[in-house]
Structures are given as structure tokens and as C-alpha cells.
Amino acid sequence: MDLVMPGTVLSPSVLPTTSNPSTPLKLGPGLCHTHPSTIITTLAGPLCIDTRKNAIWIENNNPRYTSQPNDLILATVHHSSADYFHCSITPHNPHALLPHLAFESATKKTRPQLQSGALIYARVLTASKHSETEITCMNPSTGKSEGMGELKGGMVFDISLGMARRLLMPKQREEGRVVVLEEIAEQLAFEVAVGRNGGLWVKAEGVKETLVVGRAVQETDKGGLVIEEQKKLVKRLLRGL
């Protein structure tokens, strides 16, 4: 990966190429498009490319999350108004809007009755500096929840934005170099939801098991552990159960 500094104009030669010319180029965090076809960096860090998604972004562990369309996030309901749930994504972000009907099969009579403090797994629908972020708990194309909605029970663990991105990669081992969840899953049953905004929700059979999963990811994150070190960490944590 190439390291870039803010203000760098990207050469067309570094942009991802896709076999399908109709797939639009997706710009992620740290990149800005200016007319007509100039792409400028706004952050310092490694330049990352995903040719499968025809996406390019700058990896940056700035602890302040900025909403991006299509990001999967963890959010907490703050309050409800006539048509929306107002949700907290991070302490420094304005509340995001979650329409009452943005759930699978929801109608005015059957919509979820979410209380203040409810934890939800959602996707960013729109995000702009000039308007409130809107999120959804269903795929607008299919109307299906696809795992999104209220998360009941379990615990939330803080992780870096970089670790969140790695855990959300389709191939955690090959692309993200993360194997802790895969290794633990051989011994324990658990559920996880990864928020691109730096949260990991874990629900296992009991509190001890839930803590093992969360701690394994956090220690991998903070220690920058490679695959072999992650495997040793998992063995050590499982012995403590």
C-alpha cells in the first residue's frame, strides 16, 4: 500500500480497475472528488484499494468517525419524534435519523417500539455535511433486514476504526489478517455485529464467554497482533473459562 499525505492528487494509474466498466468508482474516507475528474487526498495514511468493489480509501485510525453511505454501524436510540428515532452514532456526531418505517415489514401499526437506550444495528443511507445523517435497518432494494435491527442482550466493546474495517472485510483472514473470531468459533457459539463507527457487539452463552470474545478482539487490536499471536491469545483466554 502506498502512503499518501493530505493534498495529494491521485494519478489515474493508482485507481482500481474492474472487469465491469459499469461499476462506479467508490471513494471512501480520506478522498475528495473535484470537477471534472480529479481525486485529492484529505488524510494521511495508507492508500487502500478493493478491486472487487471498485473502491479506494485511506486507512486512518483517527478516533473520530465520520458517517459514510453504506457503512454498517451500531447506534443507540436517544429519543423518538413523530416519524423518526433520533440515534446517537458517536458522542461527537449529531443524532442520526432512523425512520420509524425503515424496518422489515414495518407499518404504522407494526413498527418497532424502541425505547431510549435501545441498541440497533443499522446502515448509513445518506450522509452529508449539510444535512442530518439518515440510517436504515433494512435493505431499501429488497425490504429485508439482512441482520439489522434491535440488538438485545450482549455487550458492546470499543475497537478502533481500523479494526472495525478489517472485521467487516469479506475475508477476515486473507484481507484483514484477523483470525480471533474464527478461532474462538471453533470452541464457543456466539453472535457479533461490527459497527464501522468503532463498536463490536457480542452475545454468547454467558458473561464469561462474551468477555472472552470481546477481549480477544480488543487485545488483537491494541497489540497489533499477527495471526500466530492471535491464535496463542485465543488459547490463553479459552483456558480461563
What features would you describe in this structure?
- The model has no long low-confidence stretch (mean pLDDT 91).
- Strands 7, 8, 9, 10, 11 and 12 form a 6-stranded antiparallel sheet that branches.
- The chain is an alpha+beta fold.
- Strand 8 (84-88) and strand 9 form a beta hairpin.
- The protein is built from 5 helices and 15 strands.
- Helix 4 (207-223) packs antiparallel against helix 5.
- The chain has helices spanning 161-167, 172-176, 180-185, 207-223, 227-239, and strands at residues 2-4, 26-27, 31-34, 38-41, 45-50, 55-58, 72-80, 84-88, 96-99, 119-128, 131-136, 149-151, 155-158, 190-195, 199-204.
- Helix content is 20%, strand content 32%.
What descriptive keywords fit this protein?
241 residues, alpha+beta, four-stranded mixed β-sheet, 5 helices, 20% helix, globular
What secondary-structure arrangement, pairings included, does this model have?
Blueprint (H helix, E strand, L loop, with lengths): L1 E3 L21 E2 L3 E4 L3 E4 L3 E6 L4 E4 L13 E9 L3 E5 L7 E4 L19 E10 L2 E6 L12 E3 L3 E4 L2 H7 L4 H5 L3 H6 L4 E6 L3 E6 L2 H17 L3 H13 L2
Parallel strand pairs: 2-6
Antiparallel strand pairs: 1-5, 3-4, 5-6, 7-8, 7-10, 8-9, 10-11, 10-12, 13-15, 14-15
